[in-house]
């Protein structure tokens, strides 16, 4: 609760109000009305003028002191601006805001005067110049604050993507490190393997035949989708075969052979070309080659995964292009958004269905701005499905008219209640818990879509929610 200490430390006069740039042209009688009908308040450092969710009580003029305006997002306090002597804040004429979306905390002792909100209608009807001055303040405030919040929303979205990207990059990066260590250890065994191999005495024709048989097995590697039980069964069969042929290190060799899809029949073919006394040496040498091949494959796959993620970021941000409009295929932007939100999608056990129309033309858009639209809509959909512990995200694109394209992002969450559907695009409106959302995401989405001369429509029911974005081709 706001603690109010009735104590006017500095006399507020019409002369003092006239000294403020925003009120200098307001007639004296209107300023006197403003003073006479206002309460004079004092706040001590640490007191709150208002907190998120509380009713905005009236129009406040700062007489002395400082009030810090900040939000809390993702548990992080984000300082936005400071209200100081002469600034006017709180409720302003024609504002639709009834509840505060920010914290307003006194950071030093503050004196302010406050015109109660319920007198706003009387002021609008009887005091034109005062109303006009306050509306001008509101216009500037909305413009400046919207720009700040849009930038803040971009940074918040970037933070979410960065967190997901860190998880996405961590697995392949860790795999590369792990494989590099394994490869180093494996290469240290080569001198021992060399001693074993160098002592093998085989006819040139047999060596050639063995080479022509073995290496195609590696190049034509058979990828088997085996269950754990099937895999263990295959390994046991090969281990038994190797033991029957007096091959040392049979367990490790069998595991690697199954990985490459080499079966008992293949071993029989190889064994016909290997003298019995050299079986251990040859099969261990073949095993060593396969292990090296597998490690290099894993490193290549992990490196490609990292390169793919980096390329997704590059395309998502359009770092290699200017930020003007260009005829662009919208699908790569949507797909790259899904890649960057991949960790959140898997964590939420969400199945993604892409119904992308083959006849959707390129559109003249700012791709970087639209990526922010996809990020907000998809992220909101993923949040909506959290309560179910799983879900299905369906993204559909189609050519609606010869000169329009339509993008639908639908989830099977619980839907948006009817009583708040008309408010979802309003600035600072959010249904998310405190600190998780700013209430600016959908407002930013609507602004970007309108900037492209498009439209956005909401369809929602207890069975799910769909946002339908329509954009002109040119």
UniProtKB/TrEMBL annotation:
Keyword list, A-Z: Kinase, Transferase
Residues in Cyclic nucleotide-binding domain copies: 22-124
Any one GO molecular-function label of the UniProt entry: protein histidine kinase activity
Entry EC no(s): 2.7.13.3
Transferase found in the keyword field: yes
InterPro entries, per database record: cNMP-bd_dom, cNMP-bd_dom_sf, HATPase_C_sf, HATPase_dom, His_kinase_dom, RmlC-like_jellyroll, Sig_transdc_His_kin-like_C
Reaction(s) catalysed (UniProt annotation): ATP + protein L-histidine = ADP + protein N-phospho-L-histidine
Gene3D superfamilies: 1.10.287.130, Histidine kinase-like ATPase, C-terminal domain (3.30.565.10), Jelly Rolls (2.60.120.10)
Statement: the UniProt record of this protein carries the keyword Kinase: yes
Chain ranges of the Histidine kinase domain: 369-474
Protein name per its UniProtKB record: histidine kinase
The organism of origin for this protein: Chitinophaga costaii
